[in-house]
Amino acid sequence: MNTTANDELNRVLHLLPRGSEKLITANEISQVTGIDKRTVYKDIALLIDRYNIPIGGLRSDGKRGYFIITNEAERKQALASLRKQSVEMLKRINKVDKIEL
User: Fold this and answer.
1) Cβ-contact 66, 44 below 8 angstroms
2) In the chain, where does DSSP find H-type helix?
């Protein structure tokens, strides 16, 4: 990976709050860093997949955004959000698959 990509990942990583009490959205990260929002999503995925950074995301109960997971309760909270998202995606996949063309 080149230095520019590493700098970008570090900028994203350093904006992520520790713990789920305070969250930051991809939009907020984009505004602060000037990094395109879609690239922020890709950077977060890369930080998790390649560098094993425990990043959680929430999209429920009025809470939206990303954070660094610091304990098992936060991990469970983040996993519940991911599971709910994946169920909704599967429903959409099945619906589109069955729509008559």
Assistant:
1) yes
2) 3-15, 26-33, 37-49, 72-98
Spacing of C-alpha 48 from chain mean position: 9
86 with 57: CB under 8 angstroms?
Answer: no
Q: How far apart are CA 85 and CA 101, in angstroms?
A: 27
Q: Which two tokens stand for residue 64?
A: 């939206």
**Cα–Cα distance, 62 to 87 (Å, whole number):** 20
pTM comes to 0.88
Kindly report, residue by residue over 24-63, the tens digit of the pLDDT. 999 999 999 999 999 999 999 999 999 999 999 998 778 8
